[in-house]
Amino acid sequence: MESLTSPSSSTSPSTETFPRSSLITVPMSSERPNPRYGIYAVFSYKEHMDDDSISCVMGCYDPLINTWSHECFVPGMNDNHILKGFAMVSVGTSIYLVGGSVYRKEKVKENGARHTEVGVEVRSLVLRYDVVTKEWSTCAPLITPRHDFACSVCDNKIYVAGGQTTIDGAIGISSAEVYDVLRNEWTPLPFMSIVRYKCVGVTYQKKFHVIGGFTYSGNKMPFMDRCSAEVYDVEKGKWDHVRGMWQLDVPPNQIVVIDNKLISSGDCLNVWKGQIETYDRNLNLWFPLEGSRKENLLPIACTSDGNDRGSSEPLQRICLTMASIETYLYFLAGYRIAGDHSSCCTMSMVHRFDTSATNNQWETFEPMQVEGERELCSHCCVVQLP
User: Which superkingdom, per the lineage (predicted)?
Assistant: First the structure.
């Protein structure tokens, strides 16, 4: 692997310009001091509303003290370019950014304050970030460049399947491959039975599941394919097709595993459906998790201008991702706060659901106002810290 120098490597994280959380901590006496976890996410970031400079940055949320900190800039990204449709997974204390598509932000001529995205390329690039040494390195590239694909870790190997190889056009692929982190090598896997993109990958029952997505198989009832899943048996080296595993013809937003259960909270059109759902593999159905009903992740006291005036008008959500840690589900939300052209900021809010509790499962931590506007580029990943 080739080492890289992050654009921020010469600057201490404590002095870098980045969305910085307010000095608010939340005592959590029920938490054990060890093990410690960090929830990492990649954002597009700009400091001012009319800012022409947009960066791709990675932040870390510490669930013990309810605080965001700047980790680093993502290397290899030009100014005003953002990365989307990539996978972000962890193996040990390393984070891998796999594939994705690069877009360039450009101002619209008719309205200089508004930006549009222009597709640049689909990447095969794989980056590795060590959370201990804070160093980036490049790994062996994907065999097939892809974005909007399924990805998950099983037995310390990274599995990817499906996705798209072009930025324009709704054309998916059915190829799959696996990365050995020790050998720094990608190996092709058998093709799935149908093409899929915007599908979700998750490891469940020691098998790599590729769930939902937009599909094509020539089926006269295409929604049947979009409701299905492909399951790769690592030991047998073959795919199985599971009908009706997702139930919707709209792709899922995110699926995680907690206490050996599959968990979902929304789809790509409605990322928060108002409740958490869990999968019953015996019935092949999704059911609401008891006590998880929560109509809105934004408290009613928050208004569109960031003040507490009792208005129910919601802020514009630009971030929502879910992470599982032990028996907890964390929902990390971010909302754009309107301001003048000289500044902008984001309100960060974290909710936690305790799957082991029988009542009062929800807890909402103190909101944080962070400098600049940061919009989520991909789902988060969890790292157990040494």
Answer: Eukaryota
List Cα–Cα distances, 289 to 131, 295, 358, in angstroms.
Answer: 33, 14, 11
Helix, strand, coil percentages for the chain (3-state, nearest 5)? 0, 50, 50
Number of folded domains that form the chain: 1
Q: What is the pTM of this model?
A: 0.88
CA-closest candidate to residue 228, choices 276, 177, 264, 192: 192
DSSP-derived letter for residue 282 is T
Per residue in 334-361, pLDDT (tens digit) is 998 865 556 678 899 999 999 999 999 9
Low-confidence residues in the chain, pLDDT < 70 = 5-33, 49-52, 108-115, 300-314, 338-343
Over residues 109-155, the pLDDT tens digits come to: 665 556 688 889 999 999 999 999 999 999 999 999 999 999 999 99
Residue 167 is assigned to a structural domain of this protein: yes
Whether residue 14 is contained in a domain is answered as no
Encoding tokens for residue 86? 């990539």
Rounded to the nearest 5°, which phi and psi values hold at 162?
A: 70, -155
DSSP state of 256: E
Please give the Cα distance from 281 to 204 (Å, whole number): 11
Nearest Cα neighbor of 376 from 332, 313, 328 is 332
Domain housing 159: 2-9+19-385
Report the greatest alpha carbon distance in the chain.
Answer: 59
Question: With contact defined as beta carbons under 8 Å apart, do 125 and 157 qualify?
Answer: no
Residue at 128 is within a domain: yes
Amino acid at residue number 310? G
Residues 6+ away with beta carbon under 8 Å from 144: 124, 165, 173, 175, 177
Q: Is 43:59 a contact under the CB 8 Å cutoff?
A: yes
d(CA 63, CA 65): 6
Here the CATH number for the domain that contains residue 199 is 2.120.10.80
User: Which tokens hold the place of 111?
Assistant: 């309205």
Burial class of 384 by CB neighbour count within 10 A (0 to 12, 13 to 18, 19+): middle
